[in-house]
Every structure is written in structure tokens, then in C-alpha cells.
Here is the input.
Amino acid sequence: MTVPDAPSPAPVLVTLQLNGEPVSVAVPPHWTLLELLRYRLGLTGTKQGCDKGDCGTCTVRIDGEPQLACLTLAVEVRDRHVETVEGLGVGGEPHPLQEAFARVGAAQCGFCTPGMLMSASAYLDKLTLEDEPVVRREDIAQALAGNLCRCTGYTKILQAVEEVAQVVLDRQRELAESTTEEP
Ligand code: FES
Ligand code: FES
Here is the structure.
């Protein structure tokens, strides 16, 4: 008996904001966001590791929150804001986190790095002087807990994020002081 192939499901249109730009793309309805990014849009900065939610290397930001692209269906990001590592720097310049990773040697093979950067950038964006007047390494470790690295032992990664977080808080402190000094 010959069993006919199941018919392929019709593609669905997904419209989203990707790294600040509007994108409309048709994808099979079962595709994940990771497949959309890598295999339809050619954004291979987001890595495909375990493909089942364990390693964190596929981390992107959806509406600002770090999320696993391998566990997110492409249709779930309709009308939402997705940021990938390709959109992290501004105007062709690397993000301070990328500079810090390079400076302290926080990337070895680099496979985990894009996911680490996206989780770390979400942590930094929420950092406020009121909530965290001193950078706490345990908070950084918590923010990166879903991102696995099999090369570095994590110390350099934590150091890189800590250095940037310190700069963020120092700037906030200077701003707060200059505001209170105004007549
Ligand atoms: S590839 Fe998504 S968690 Fe590993
Ligand atoms: S630098 Fe190789 S897995 Fe993290």
C-alpha cells in the first residue's frame, strides 16, 4: 500500500518589528522563531544549540524580555518587537557589552555569546540606581542562569557584564547628582 504524503500546510504571514524594522514574511505555521530568523531571514547570529529549551543560545528579546527562539513559534511574534544580536549595536558600533566581552575575553568558541548578550542586555536595561545601587554579581548570574557556556567557566562573562553594569549605574548616579545640584 502506498501512503500519500500529507499535504504541506499553507504558509502563514507573520508581520513583526525586527531590530527596529518592519518585516512581513510567510512561513510554514509550525516553524519556530529560530527557524524564521536563521533559515528564512538569514540572521544566523541567533544560534541553534539544543533546540529544546535547555541551553539558551537561541535567546532573543521579545518586547524587551529574553525569550528562547527555539520554543517560540514564529506566529507568536506577530505584531511584536523582536531583537536579535544583529540589532544590539547602534550605528555600526558594537554594544558596550560586546566591547566588554571582547576586552576581558568572555567569548571563547563564541557559540553561547549571542544568547548571553541578549540576556545581559535585558538585565542592563532594567538596572536602576533605586533597585540596585551596587552591582551584585549574584543578580547577573541569575539573569544569565538560562544561558549555558561550556568553554569559559562563566567568570569572564560575569566580569564583562559587571563592568558594563557598573558604568550604567555610575552614569545614573552622575545624572541624579547633577539634577539635585541644579538651583
Ligand atoms: S537552542 Fe534554544 S534553548 Fe537551546
Ligand atoms: S564561549 Fe564556547 S560555549 Fe560559551
User: Anything to note?
Assistant: The chain has two domains: 1-87, 90-183. The two ends are 88 Å apart (CA to CA). The mean pLDDT is 95.
